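Q: Could you write out the predicted structure for this multi-component system? I'm mainly interested in how the pieces pack against one another.
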Amino acid sequence: MLGVIGIVFSLSIFSIQQVAERGTALTLREYAHDWVFRFVYWILAFFAILAMLSSLQNSKSALYRICLNVGILAASVLVLKVYFNRVMKFIDPDFTITKIATRAGKSLRQIQRVERAVQAELRYARARRRT
Amino acid sequence: MTAAQQMKWKDYKFHFFDRNPQIFSAFEVALEELQSMVFDFSERKKYNLTRHALNELSNLLLAYLIARDNSLRVPTSTMAMFFPSDIGFDPVLTRQLERFKAHAARGISNSDQEFVKQVVSVLAALSLRSLQSRSYFTEYGENSVTTFISAYLNGSIRDAALRGLDDVALEGADHLRDLCKALIEKQLYISALTQVGNLEQLATIAVLKKSDVVLSVAVRGLSDCLLHNCTHGYPGTHVTSHLLESLVRVTNLRLASPVGLDGTTVSFSVGPFVSPTESSSFAAITVAMANGIIELSGANQHETASRLRSLYEELHDQAWLSLAELGIEAVKKNSFLLHYINSTIEEAVRAHINLVIVLDRLPRIEESSWEAAREQEHRDGFRDEIRHKIRLETTGVYSRIVPAMFEHQQLTYLEGTIKAQCLFAFWGLRVHMEDIAKDAIERIFKACTRLQDPQYKDVLASSRLAIHIAQIGIYALALEGEGIFRAALDRYATLQRTFRERYPDRHFVGEFESAQRELLGERESGRIIMDPHDREFFSTVTPEQIQLFFASL
């Protein structure tokens, strides 16, 4: 499992780096901060630990171990597919542009929330002064 | 929330954002990242990606402008002129606009038209959409945010035009026009005047670069704005006069260009302003407005009719003088432009005459209320004003142009001009403005007298053109205008006599003796007459009246 993590992440970083060099370095930075990337990394790491722990169980629970390992394998394939799709998206520069724009939009909405909070605070202070 | 509280919140919001610029740091970092991507992709000429990034930037900046509505630090034009310069501009917006300017400048220096067009489009979209946002500093008739952004837009278009990037200049002219129209609709006249100045500047660059294609689009932009102001604007804003002055200045400049302005180039350069067939030419605007006034006056829509009437007066306030000056310049250069000016004036006077006829026929409004009385008074005043304008646009213009033709010995377009005088005389007689007809007779008489002088090398033209005096006399006879008939008779006889005295042995086609035969022959030929002047004449007079005129000589 650890081998899978190593190979998958190394290869994808290599391909993303290639894309970043042809396009813009921001692609690599966005990739490094991507939540799907982190999620997949941690879920695969969790599966690796789980698989290791299951192998330490006694022989009485062999059936459970087999079921668990098959489950981990199936889930890993699914997670790797999600990861692969995400990498494919990152190879497309339009996705990075949209991602940065979405981040900017979120930060602006956050500012507007702060503004509304300040406005509400001001109103409250005025109302208190009046009473 | 009360108005006073809102005002306080506006101040508070402004100071809150102004004193805490770090609030926008994260937002600005993302914008800077997008700007870097635009730079990277433009270097690799990946235009679909630059377009995407620029569109995202445009959307984000629009969202920023809306979020900062009424709290943006953008000084008004008055403040920029008279206040200390430390007021400054909104840093986030300024930095982003500077980045756009840098992109455009880089694209222009690389002659990368596609990329520059994209940047200009983003600036144009931003200018247009910035109308939704106002600065903290407000001024009546101005949106300083739009003016500020449009300064960057205009700068990029101007630089591209100077560099000869015609595609950018063509699109840019359309953007400036759209912006000016939007400003007129929003009644932001100070900002609209700035755009008029920008369009004129672009047209001037086009003349200097000898690019009639760009000039045509810039002139069309100005003409479209004039039409838009005449339909959506309000009188007393100076937009009409500024637009008209700009159009006349540009036409004069093109006329003075060493390239020349002949028959083929007029319509492809300043045609959108001077060609009556163009949808937003001066003549077309006049006709459209006259039709609108007629329709609204009949439909009792007093408020709108009154606005249109005032705009109509404003449009024709100084137009006659500008057209006369343009005409004189066209005469000096012997340019085909004079033909277009004649057509423009003809259409304008026709519209005036129609207005006078319809307003005369309209039943008087029963003065039952103060509003009704005011409307009737406005209508009467307007009719008198139109009569005055007819005098200015016929006698006022041609009493300058026709003598200039002889002064500069440029008689190529004299016949067309004389025909126009004859037509004005007919129309004048129709609306009982005998002075127009009298002035026309005098002008034709003077022209014919001068033509008898051999220095103009066309003595026979004196006889050929004198037939128009006869036509005015016959037309007056048909409409029972005794005074004009006598005046025409007298002038025609004088011309005939003086010609015979000077050239007793000359016989040629179109001589005085053949005038009656010619007119009767034309009258009885039954051919379809296309010429408006001949159509007006032959549809009104009878053969007996033609014979009576010549018999009275």
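A: Regarding packing and overall arrangement: The two ends of chain A are 67 Å apart (CA to CA).
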